[in-house]
């Protein structure tokens, strides 16, 4: 029998990761709202102290956004300035600026796939 999930704790953990990632990448409330499909007012409350809803797409998209940050952070070796520069510079593989690209689900997934792809070592 599977263990029951503690959805409140899961939501709190994902919200904490979301806040950290959004802060490190300097993502505005408007952009974060478009990524998660939530109104700016809800994002402002989440940034302040409210957790993400325990179910629904916003929580799933927040997990993906945190995963994007984790992958990018590993590539830039924790350099938030370099991560922000990458997010705001045109990327020919993604055919756009990542900060704009990730505002759609397909763009978010494409950016994660790009960051997680094996890189040649020369």
Describe the structure.
There is one protein chain. This protein is mainly α. It has one domain (8-114). 65% of the residues lie in helices and 0% in strands. It has helices at 7-25, 29-36, 40-48, 57-75, 80-87, 98-101, 105-116. Helix 2 crosses helix 3 and helix 4 runs parallel beside helix 7 (105-116). The mean pLDDT is 94.
Spans of at least 5 consecutive residues with low confidence: none
Oligomer category: single chain
Mean pLDDT: 94
How many helical elements?
Answer: 7
SS-derived structural category: mainly alpha
Strand-residue proportion: under 5%
Instruction: Note the gap between the termini.
Output: 49 Å
Helix-strand string: HHHHHHH
Number of domains: 1
Overall shape: it is: globular
Helix content: 55-70%
Major sheet characteristics = none
Kindly list the characteristics that best describe this protein.
globular, 122 residues, 7 helices, mainly alpha, single chain
Concise structural overview:
The protein is an all-alpha fold. The protein has helices at 7-25, 29-36, 40-48, 57-75, 80-87, 98-101, 105-116.
């Amino acid at each position: 029998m599977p263990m029951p999930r503690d959805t409140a704790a899961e939501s709190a953990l994902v919200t904490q990761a979301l806040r950290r990632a959004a802060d490190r990448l300097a993502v505005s409330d408007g952009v974060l709202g478009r990524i998660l499909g939530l109104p700016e007012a809800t994002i402002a409350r989440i940034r302040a102290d409210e957790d993400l809803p325990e179910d629904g797409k916003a929580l799933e998209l927040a997990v993906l956004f945190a995963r994007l940050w984790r992958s990018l952070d590993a590539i830039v070796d924790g350099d938030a300035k370099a991560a922000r520069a990458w997010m705001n510079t045109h990327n020919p593989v993604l055919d756009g600026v990542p900060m704009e690209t990730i505002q759609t689900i397909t763009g978010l997934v494409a950016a994660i796939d790009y960051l997680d792809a094996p890189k040649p070592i020369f």
